[in-house]
Task: inverse folding
């Protein structure tokens, strides 16, 4: 591919050459027509070879962006490299709540639930009133242990629900906890509350109603 400045320079040279060639016959209409036709042919030929200037510029911008993206990935070594960096940071600054929270999210994205639970636990101990930290911590506990919540975590979620009755994440977590405790009635209560917050014809509402029917059919 050609750089735009090279193509531009070529066009200038073409124009100059034609002007010089036909100048002695500048008063002749035939030669004026021939010169104009020749210029059009040469311009079209250059366009066919190089493509449009805008396409060329867009291609180079795309290539540059891809190269920068690859450089960032190589520098950070992807998600695992980012995990190592943040882990080193929170090890040096253990009171960094957002650092612990971000570390937990990264571990969760890799389904490393034990590490995610540990990271969220650090964040939760320092910011127990932060709902997003509470929800992610509780979710990591469920995914890691596959058991009902310990009492203090269940109470923290229940208190949060009392303060914010429309918190769908908290409702879902408490419903799952109740189901795993074999408290089907309590689980249904939470799920019915959740259904009231979902659009009736949404995919989520339909799936939840189907799950509730299946659970009620199990003796």
Result:
């Amino acid at each position: 591919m050609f750089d735009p400045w090279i193509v531009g320079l070529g066009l200038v040279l073409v124009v100059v050459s034609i002007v010089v060639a036909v100048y002695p016959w500048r008063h002749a209409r035939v030669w004026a027509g021939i010169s104009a036709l020749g210029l059009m042919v040469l311009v079209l030929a250059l366009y066919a070879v190089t493509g449009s200037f805008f396409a060329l510029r867009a291609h180079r911008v795309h290539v540059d962006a891809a190269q920068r993206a690859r450089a960032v990935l190589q520098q950070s070594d992807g998600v695992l490299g980012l995990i190592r960096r943040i882990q080193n940071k929170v090890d040096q600054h253990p009171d960094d709540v957002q650092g612990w929270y971000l570390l937990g999210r990264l571990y969760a994205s890799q389904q490393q639930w034990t590490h995610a639970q540990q990271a969220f636990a650090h964040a939760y101990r320092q910011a127990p009133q932060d709902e997003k930290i509470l929800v992610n911590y509780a979710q990591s506990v469920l995914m890691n242990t596959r058991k009902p919540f310990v009492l203090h975590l269940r109470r923290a979620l229940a208190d949060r629900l009392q303060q914010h009755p429309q918190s769908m994440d908290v409702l879902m977590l408490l419903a799952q906890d109740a189901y795993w405790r074999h408290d089907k009635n309590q689980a249904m209560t939470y799920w019915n509350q959740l259904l009231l917050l979902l659009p009736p014809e949404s995919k989520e509402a339909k799936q939840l109603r189907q799950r509730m029917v299946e659970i009620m059919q199990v003796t």
User: Anything to note?
Assistant: The radius of gyration is 33 Å. Residues 201 and 207 are 10 Å apart (CA to CA). Confidence is low (pLDDT under 50) at residues 1-62.
